[in-house]
Amino acid sequence: MDLLHTQDGTPTLLHPVYGEAYHPRQGALLQARRLYLEQTRTHLHPAPRVLEVGLGLLVNFRASLESALLRGVRLRYLAVEREPLPGELLARVRLPLPLAEEVFQDILGRWPAERFAGPWGELRVLFGDVREVQLPRLWATAVYLDPFSPRANPEAWSPFVLRALRRALRPGGRLATYSAQGAFRRALKEAGFALHRVPGVGKREWTVGIGRGVPPG
Ligand SMILES: C[S@@+](CC[C@H](N)C(=O)[O-])C[C@H]1O[C@@H](n2cnc3c(N)ncnc32)[C@H](O)[C@@H]1O
Fold this sequence. Notes:
217 residues; Rossmann fold; 28% helix
């Protein structure tokens, strides 16, 4: 697969079946920072635990790790991915994040594995479909919901999945996603999230869901 360049100079890929890019054309790293990292407040958290749906090119992971390393905090990251990309391809996806890139080189040396750990923290990968994996209860301080769009990839946005993500989130934790689709937003509210519309970059709105209190189940 050929890498494409987004407008902030960071790479992305086009998925051959979904016909969608892994990141917006305005910037892969730009979205990782402005949406996932900042809108979930992960960049401020003293002990961040991120649950991601769609690890992809590990752009969101590396942006989160760089932020944690610069602040001297450990990152715990649990990602669900059903189509892991080959290591040779990931090795070509370089990002201007010097601290995280060093850890990424170690990860690539053992890719794909279910757990990577070091003084920086931990990355665990659940290789499977988000509808089928077992997520930990009340674990995450943040959820990055980053599959392909609800139109192309509807199963990853279903009420069933959103309820599972709500159960995985700690009280006060935040879910962020680029999608502003109406049906998805209604399902997010029904799953027990307080819905917030935030201004997007390259699109009018992104979506943030805040998990208030302890969810049932
Ligand atoms: C938009 S890309 C993610 C980009 C990634 N977050 C990054 O930082 O580079 C979407 C990813 O979601 C994964 N995905 C889509 N549907 C899924 C599902 N039902 N379960 C698990 N992973 C899924 C795809 O394989 C793909 O890697």
